[in-house]
């Protein structure tokens, strides 16, 4: 016989079990409809033009606990003709506010037309922009005002940013190049946008992207720390003006690897404030080669140090390993190594030029200069289209110091004669076999 106390327990437990069963059933129903316990819809797209609250975006939990914010959910058309700038800005804003790692998705197989857009941090968590389709610049140059003609897509002050996806970023540069003073000398020299700019970013990764036909520079890394640029394809015609591939300035601890760069200007331009840069496995050409500088322009101070350029192939470039500085500058370019380089029909394979001038009027002689010191050219071989394979045109007042030439073999294209080298105001030493015989002028 059941005691009265046990009977009372059963009477209280039955309603409790029923309530628990109903609660779990309700949660399952909400989950199947894409609604969490707090009423947030994670599956359905927001109403962009309706009277609903501001769009929250698609936020699906993945095994890695990432939230995904597709630009399509924020009103992007992806047809290559409608302006998708604000859709990207809204998706970025939502992702940046996410308390957990977020992905802004550019879906594949479509073209998203963008005008100037700046994607700001700091963000609450890490953000990844995954470009599977194509971001294409507006073909209308009037969409850029004189207030800011230097930028197109800008990331500013973001920590733990990744840009990847295997898609493309197309600058529509053919709309801009004919208006360059380098193409039409009758025109005034004006700036044009950089396709992809990173300003004040830390722990930055940019990988597996195609960047094509930028209006001017393809990618600029400025005031950034701890950067990886990997597996990038950067392409523009060899005749396109000022279309540097990767531009780095005022940044430290940067690694560039496994990139193919074909442009109309420097494959890489390494400028003031760059420290601890390691470049490896880069294929370059056409273009102007890999350049440190120009430094010291307009009597400015420049500081560049700790640069290693390793395992690079150059095809038909204007220059190979180059350091260029203006007269009148100050500061230093030091502790620099160019090594394990193969050059095919390069015009100026090894060049230091402390009298560089890229001005409309001649640059006058000045006494000060950026000090160039502790530079190593090691294990460099290939062919050149000019006799002067090694050229060191250094400052009379601030000579180049500590230049090392080691294991160099540079020959004329097709064996047409022999190569030579010239040095002016350079202090150098050689190790191993160096061809051409270094520096007949050893002042």
From TrEMBL:
GO terms for biological process: anther dehiscence; carbohydrate metabolic process; cell wall modification involved in abscission; fruit dehiscence. Residues 32-66 are annotated as: Disordered. One of its GO terms (molecular function) is polygalacturonase activity. Keywords: Cell wall, Cell wall biogenesis/degradation, Glycosidase, Hydrolase, Secreted, Signal. The active site is at 288. Residues 32-43 have a biased composition (Polar residues). Pfam families: Glyco_hydro_28. It catalyses: (1,4-alpha-D-galacturonosyl)n+m + H2O = (1,4-alpha-D-galacturonosyl)n + (1,4-alpha-D-galacturonosyl)m. Residues 1-31 form the signal peptide. It is found in: Secreted, Cell wall. Its EC number is 3.2.1.15. PANTHER family: PTHR31375. Belongs to the glycosyl hydrolase 28 family. This is endo-polygalacturonase. It comes from Miscanthus lutarioriparius.
């Amino acid at each position: 016989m059941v005691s009265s106390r046990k009977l009372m327990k059963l009477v209280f437990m039955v309603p409790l079990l029923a309530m628990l069963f109903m609660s779990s059933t309700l949660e399952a129903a909400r989950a199947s409809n894409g609604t969490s316990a707090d009423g947030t819809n994670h599956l359905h797209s927001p109403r962009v033009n309706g009277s609903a609250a501001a769009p929250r975006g698609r936020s699906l939990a993945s095994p890695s606990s990432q939230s995904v914010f597709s630009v399509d959910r924020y009103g992007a058309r992806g047809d290559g003709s409608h302006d998708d700038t604000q859709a990207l800005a809204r998706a970025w804003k939502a992702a940046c506010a996410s308390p957990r790692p977020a992905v802004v998705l550019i879906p594949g197989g479509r073209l998203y037309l963008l005008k100037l857009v700046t994607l700001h941090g700091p963000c609450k968590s890490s953000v990844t922009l995954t470009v599977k389709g194509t971001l294409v610049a507006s073909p209308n140059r009037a969409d850029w005002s004189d207030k800011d003609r230097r930028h197109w897509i800008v990331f500013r002050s973001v920590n733990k940013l990744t840009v990847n996806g295997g898609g493309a970023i197309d600058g529509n540069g053919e709309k801009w190049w004919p208006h360059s003073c380098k193409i039409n000398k009758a025109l005034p020299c004006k700036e044009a946008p950089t396709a992809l700019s990173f300003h004040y970013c830390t722990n930055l990764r940019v990988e597996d992207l195609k960047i094509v036909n930028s209006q001017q520079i393809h990618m600029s890394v400025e005031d950034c720390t701890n950067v990886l640029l990997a597996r990038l394809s950067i392409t523009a015609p060899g005749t396109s003006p000022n279309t540097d591939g990767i531009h780095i300035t005022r940044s430290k601890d940067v690694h560039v690897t496994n990139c193919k760069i074909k442009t109309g200007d420097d494959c890489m331009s390494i400028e003031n404030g760059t420290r601890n840069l390691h470049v490896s496995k880069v294929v370059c050409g056409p273009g102007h080669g890999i350049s440190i500088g120009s430094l010291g322009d307009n009597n400015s101070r420049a500081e560049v140090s700790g640069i290693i350029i390793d395992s690079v192939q150059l095809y038909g470039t204007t220059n190979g390993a180059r350091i260029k500085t203006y007269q009148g500058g100050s500061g230093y370019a030091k502790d620099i190594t160019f090594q394990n380089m193969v050059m095919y029909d390069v015009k100026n394979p090894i060049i230091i030029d402390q009298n560089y001038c890229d001005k409309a009027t001649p640059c006058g002689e000045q006494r000060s200069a950026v000090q160039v010191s502790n530079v190593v050219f090691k294990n460099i071989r290939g062919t050149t289209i000019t006799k002067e394979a090694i050229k060191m045109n250094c400052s009379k007042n601030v000579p180049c110091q500590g230049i090392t030439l080691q294991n160099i073999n540079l020959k004329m294209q097709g064996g047409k004669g022999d190569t030579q080298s010239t040095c002016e105001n350079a202090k150098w030493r050689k190790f191993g076999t160096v061809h051409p015989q270094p520096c007949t002028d050893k002042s």
